[in-house]
Amino acid sequence: MNLRDLGYLVALAETRHFGRAAERAHISQPTLSAQIKKLEDQLGVQLVERQPRNVTLTDVGERVVARARRILREAEDITELARESRDPLAGSLRVAFIPTLGPYLLPLVTPRLRKQLPRLQLLLYEYQTGPLLEKLRAGELDLGMLALGVDVSGLEVEALHDEAFTLAVPATHRLAKKTSVRPEDLTGETLLLLEDGHCLRDQALDVCSRIDVREAEDFRGTSLETLRQMVIAGLGVTLLPELATQGPFAAARNIAIRPFAKPAPRRTLGAVWRKSSTRGPAIKAVCAALREVLDGRR
User: Which helix H or strand E contains 158, and what residues bound it?
Assistant: First the structure.
């Protein structure tokens, strides 16, 4: 048994297809099939049920794959630990952002990161909060950027920035005439929200929990940009995080963005990573750059 063969098994488990698994592992399909069979012979158990158009794992195969993933992560951590001892700010770092943050923060912070950390390669991903935390805990990510207020037990957490919410209304809406608004001004309005799974949906509902506001029953957005277009179409109003209303996003026509009067509702943006991570210096350096950019926009 070796790490290479365990990697082949994990690739097969994730693709459920010998051809795609071989392509991912950069080997031929017959070679991968032979190595899986060799592993089964070594263990004395069948790991894979081979069917003409489908591959499934046996019960013991599922359990072996779960352990194989942990072993491969530990092996990768050893490699990263050695690399870190030589140059802690080099190598790759897998970073994920929630969808209501990544598109608006990355254009601001990427030039700074490239300048300050030229030897660090950021592998960027986008996930909703639940999958992001799941992948982070599973070792598939090194760093997550999200809105705090969710269960991050067992993880290291660093708060980076308090971001205010704004109200987006059609340009001809009654609230567009105001210089600032209060939550109670939304009484009787139709509120456009993201679909389940987005933490911003829960935060918006919390802001409006004490007033009589109606959620649009026939629509839930998949992104902030969808919500923005629905507001422009006159289908309701929505809450947008401040970052999503600045720079090129401030130029949209037929929509008015109004700040909330103090104390404005807000969310806390933060970074989370595993306590056992070997990439501490790189993570801290990325967090410092993110904080500088976010604080510089206040």
Answer: strand 155-170
Strand pairing class (266-274; 155-170): antiparallel
Residue 254: partners with Cβ closer than 8 Å, 6 or more residues away:
170, 171, 232
Domains of the chain: 3-84 (1.10.10.10), 88-298 (3.40.190.290)
Q: Which of 86, 84, 94, 153 is nearest to 126 (CA)?
A: 94
Tens-place pLDDT, residues 41-60: 999 999 999 887 788 999 99
State the pLDDT at residue 11: 94
pLDDT in tens, 63-90: 999 999 999 988 988 887 777 678 888 8
Q: H/E element holding 102?
A: helix 102-116
Q: Which range in 188-192, 216-220, 287-291 is most confidently predicted, on average pLDDT?
A: 287-291
The residue length of the chain stands at: 298
- Tell me what the mean pLDDT of segment 2-10 comes to: 94
Asked if residue 142 lies in contact with residue 93, where contact means CB atoms within 8 angstroms, the answer is: yes
Residue 298 has which token pair? 């206040």
Question: How many angstroms separate the CA atoms of 227 and 237, rounded?
Answer: 9
What 3-state DSSP class applies to 167? strand
Buried b (16+ CB within 10 A) or exposed e, 80-105: beeebeeebbebebbbbbbbbbbbbb
Q: How many contiguous H segments (helices) and E segments (strands) does the chain have?
A: 9, 11
Give CA angle at 192 (174, 226), nearest 5°: 110
